[in-house]
Write a structure and sequence with these properties.
Elements lengths: L3 H10 L15 H6 L6 H14 L1 H14 L4 H13 L4 H21 L3 H10 L6 H11 L4 H23 L4 H22 L12 H10 L10
């Protein structure tokens, strides 16, 4: 169970106001809206559900769990970080994960310092790091249990995509809350399953998501960076 101080940290780190630039990324959703496959609450929920159950969100969830468990093993954590950075199907999803990861590490080291974060930053140097690994390490370093930490990470991912969908489709704010409510069960299920999977069994099965990300790279008019 998360303590009051744990909950406070999770609320801060998963808040859209945490300065990592999450609001500027859509994970290919902008193209899906442009070509008409996402046009209402139902299709938005389907898209985001695919991200967290069999796309990049699923990969991040599994790697989050392994990074948290290996936070005190430098060699294993660094290997997980390298894999997480490479496990991207498009340049834009790589940009999305890495820029948020670098920003998360920078901000958290300043506001919530810990020796594990400093050591990780020194070992990585200029190498790209992704948000899932950095947030997992931050949670482990500050003694936050894996289950609520991973749940908060997934909620932040989902909430950011819902916010993008509300702006892009566009949808009303009530529709956005309906989407969040409908995705809650999927967050809970992914949180549980991601803690059980071995890294060697990790993979994705969401080619249409990757296609949307690739098409977004050359989309004529763009509001988002991915």
């Amino acid at each position: 169970m998360a303590t009051e101080s744990d909950l406070y940290r999770l609320l801060v780190w998963s808040s859209p106001s945490y300065p990592i630039g999450a609001f500027s990324y859509s994970h290919g959703l902008e193209w899906a809206v442009e070509e008409g496959s996402v046009r209402n609450v139902d299709s938005l929920v389907d898209y985001i559900g695919a991200v967290i159950t069999r796309g990049g969100g699923w990969v991040d969830a599994v790697l989050f769990a392994h990074a948290w468990r290996n936070a005190h093993d430098d060699a294993k954590l660094d290997a997980i970080s390298e894999l997480a950075s490479a496990f991207r199907a498009s340049s834009e999803t790589a940009l999305e994960a890495r820029q948020q990861g670098n920003a998360f590490l920078l901000v958290t080291r300043r506001a919530w310092p810990h020796a594990l974060l400093d050591g990780f930053a020194q070992r990585q140097g200029d190498a790209p790091v992704v948000q899932a690994v950095v947030m997992a390490l931050s949670c482990a370093a500050h003694g936050i249990a894996l289950q609520p930490a991973l749940s908060a990470f997934l909620h932040a991912t989902v909430a950011n995509l819902v916010s993008a969908g509300v702006r892009l489709v566009p949808l009303g704010q009530t529709d956005g809350q309906i989407a969040l409510a409908r995705l809650a069960a999927q967050i809970e299920r992914v949180t549980a399953l991601a803690q059980q999977l071995e890294i060697d069994d990790l993979g994705t099965a969401a080619p249409l998501l990757e296609f949307c990300s690739l098409r977004h790279e050359t989309q004529y008019t763009r509001l988002f960076r991915s």
